Amino acid sequence: MSKPKVSTDWLAACAGCHMSLLDMDERIVNLVEAVDIRATPITDLKEPDESGVDVGVLTGAVNTTTNEEVAHRMRKRCKILVALGDCAVFGGVIAMRNFFPLEDSLRRAYVETESTDAEGKIPRSPELGAPTRVRALNEVVKVDVHVPGCPPDADVIYYVLTELAQGRMPELKNDKLHWH
Amino acid sequence: MSAQKITIEPVTRIEGHAKVTIHLNDGGGVERAYLHINEFRGFEKFCEGRLYFEMPVITPRICGICPVSHHLASAKACDELAGSPPPRPATILRELMHMGQVIQSHGMHFFELAGPDLLLGFDADPAVRNVVGLIQANPALALKAVRLRKFGQEIIKTLGGRKVHPNFAIPGGVNKALQPAERDAILAGVDEAIDTIRLGLSIMKDWAEKHQEDIQRFAVFPTGYFGLITPEGSLELYDGECRLIDSRGQRLEQFAGRRYLDYIAEHVEDWSYLKFPYYKKMGWPNGVYRVGPLGRLNVAEKVDTPLASEEFRLFKNLNGGKPVENTLYYHYARLIETLFAAERVKVLLDDPDILSTDILNTRKEFKGEGVGVIEAPRGTLFHHYWADENGQLQRVNLIVATGHNNWAMSHAVDSVAKTYFQPGNLNEGFLNRVEAAVRAYDPCLSCSTHALGQMPLVVEVVDQAGAVVASLRRDGR
Prior knowledge:
The structure holds two protein chains of two kinds.
Chain A: E1 5-10, H1 16-22, H2 27-34, E2 36-37, E3 53-59, E4 62-64, H3 65-77, E5 78-84, H4 86-90, H5 102-112, E6 131-135, E7 145-147, H6 154-165
Parallel strand pairs in A: 1-2, 1-3, 3-5, 5-7
Antiparallel strand pairs in A: 4-6
Chain B: E1 4-8, E2 18-24, E3 30-37, E4 40-41, H1 43-46, H2 55-58, H3 67-82, H4 88-120, H5 131-137, H6 139-160, E5 169-170, E6 173-174, H7 180-210, H8 212-217, E7 224-229, E8 241-245, E9 251-255, E10 264-267, E11 276-279, E12 289-290, H9 292-299, H10 306-317, H11 329-349, E13 369-376, E14 379-387, E15 393-399, H12 401-404, H13 406-420, H14 428-439, H15 445-448, E16 451-452, E17 458-462, E18 468-473
Parallel strand pairs in B: 7-12
Antiparallel strand pairs in B: 1-2, 2-3, 4-16, 5-6, 7-8, 8-9, 10-11, 13-14, 14-15, 17-18
């Protein structure tokens, strides 16, 4: 039987959840033996296989049209979708932005900040994704497994991925469920 | 013949979201390449109204790779804002945590993110040209790399309770003293870490010897350089004055970080969410400079730890004492700094104050404004807060490490695209070299787009009407 395929990506995230994944340290060798790691931000394939992967993992909140596209593509191409970390699960720290009108946030960053020069302007090139309201992943696509934590501990991430690799749904409770 | 455009999206093995567009001219050559940083988050706005002492907990969420930089820069800004300078033991404990971070971040970048290009080759199959491929190709080396990163992360956890987003520094000091057993446990791991870093250095130097042609062709260009230094002009990562030198190595400025607004301004381009800092007196774009490992070693006159000092001398000889301009030497400079950080861990742990419990200044002379500056792994980081008399933040300004290198990264992408592009022969190795130009700077785009942040590659050749003429993608197809 071939190894289950796992693909990950980050949306509006700080990369801390991927760092916590690496914090499983030596166990990363076991993980590589148990699963086929496909496209991730820390490898070189750019997108999850068009033929599909078994497990898709997304970290970060959805806060631009580019994030929306990445979320929909991952949902379409994976059997089980994991929302990893507080941003994907709830929106996280950056959801604080929803308390302000989006234009105010953009104007503060690109026009009003004290170090920005007199020619500051809000970037609007079509090459860039347009900012949106900040949303948790399940407000945009169906999520199968929610793993909170900022970031979730490496032990929890290892447990979740190895359970899924063996075809079981991970059960998050007691010491495996934390909110900090 | 119509003008065409190539898109690389996402750029991988960097932190965050970016894409590259390469615009071709009528002759089929490269007209200009752009690096687009595609993410905005908005910390500078949504932190308004928070209490200042929450910032060392909120701002690390800007970046999970260097959360400690934000944690400490924020705490330093709060020290000043609250008028509560920390006692010396707290300062060296914070520096110890910072060294843990430099080791884990630099170590991971060399071995796990950029290293695969050097260890497996720019032209290696993208399916294996990564840390997983490295584990399969050289498990012993991969394991050493894992353990080096772990060593740095464990220092952070020992002090701050966890590896990512620790909670340790507070306005006026830190919240926990170091125990003797904890000190001994860290000390026990230093020599192994130093051995691995020196192995990395020998891999780097061996690679440099065999790839001199690449090193001399790959994004070599003059800029200014910027970084913190000690009062004696030595390499400094935690606290010191800012020094700016020009492309020939002449000193332009040296100033206390809190006066940064007198010297640095930020330019905005429509095609990137990442701003472009520059030296005000020279204006945009003449005043561009580089930060991070290459910037810091170019501004420093010496390094105060013995092994790193030896390597530093070799580094200074690369360009006869003048600033080193080669983008690929960022990797070398990064390893020299990693060695410095590991040696510095030893120095700090041997300091008689390191176990002191005098770790918090509880007196305050509230000032309401504070600037915190630190050398994050990727360059100089500024946090600037203004609070009202209740401690509620009125305004927040951040200039983040990767931002300073924005012009240089964009220029490096343009330079590499022009140097290596062969009309009619669009291949994977070419694309990866373009990405490697970005990767050498170890950008942290979550950090840099704190303002709103993100990085993933598809290359498309598009004609002037927007129709896709040819495409090359790097994914699982």
